[in-house]
Amino acid sequence: MIQLLFLSVLLSAADMPIAGWLETAKVFPGGLTIRAKLDTGAKTSSLDARHIEKFERKGDDWVRFKVTDSNGKDVTLELPIERIVKIKRHKSPSQQRPVVFMNICLGNIFKKAEVNLVDRRVFNNKMLIGRNFLTGSFIVDPSSKYITKPKCGEVKAE
Fold first, then answer.
1. Is residue 18 within 8 Å of 141, Cβ to Cβ?
2. pTM of this prediction?
3. Are the beta carbons of 42 and 127 closer than 8 angstroms?
4. For every residue of 29-46, which 3-state class applies, written as one string?
5. In the chain, which ranges are E strands?
6. Which among 63, 98, 55 has a CA at the least distance from the CA of 80?
7. How far is CA 108 from the centre of its chain?
8. Which helix (H) or strand (E) holds 17?
9. 19 CB contacts (<8 Å, ≥6 apart)?
10. Confidence band (pLDDT; 50, 70, 90) for 12?
11. Angle CA(40)–CA(143)–CA(23) in degrees, nearest 5?
């Protein structure tokens, strides 16, 4: 029985595309091309956002923020807040961050995922893609980078 389960996992993994630890992703809304670190140790994805402002729209909590893509293109986005997450940080105080749903394109995989918003200017990569997007879609090869490109085309509906 265990052998069949192991074989099943191997066969399903063989069907998954391989991605490197660094890749180029596209995020929607905005259609922004962003350099991303694939992090299997992080549960949620995280996006470099500036000028984060919470506001209310028709009784719901929303957030307005600015994102700059890898080509220097700035876009201001407004999205409903899904929840607020408390992030524990190594040797730093915990941080509260707004979480929104965004569509992410990596290779030819297009999925909606929770993304927390934070100023990531101290990091090398503007986006961190976590397990909430990667699980069941990719095998991450930590010895490779930039082995796939976003191939989802232009997305019609958000």
1. yes
2. 0.83
3. no
4. CCCEEEEEEECCCCCCEE
5. 18-28, 32-38, 45-48, 50-57, 60-68, 74-80, 83-89, 92-106, 109-118, 127-129, 139-145
6. 63
7. 15
8. none
9. 38, 106, 107, 134, 138, 139, 140, 141, 144, 147, 148
10. low
11. 60
Say how far apart CA 152 and CA 98 lie, in whole Å: 26
What is the Cα–Cα distance from 88 to 94, expressed in whole angstroms? Answer: 5
Q: How are beta strands 18-28 and 139-145 bridged, if at all?
A: parallel
102 pLDDT more than 90: yes
Percent of the chain with pLDDT over 90: 68
Residue 158 CB coordination number (10 Å): 11
Rounded Cα gap, residues 152 and 78, in angstroms: 23
Does residue 122 surpass a pLDDT of 50?
Answer: yes
**What are 45-94's pLDDT values in tens digits?**
999 999 999 999 999 999 999 999 888 889 999 999 999 988 777 777 88
Under a CB-based contact definition with an 8 Å cutoff, are residues 147 and 21 in contact?
Answer: no
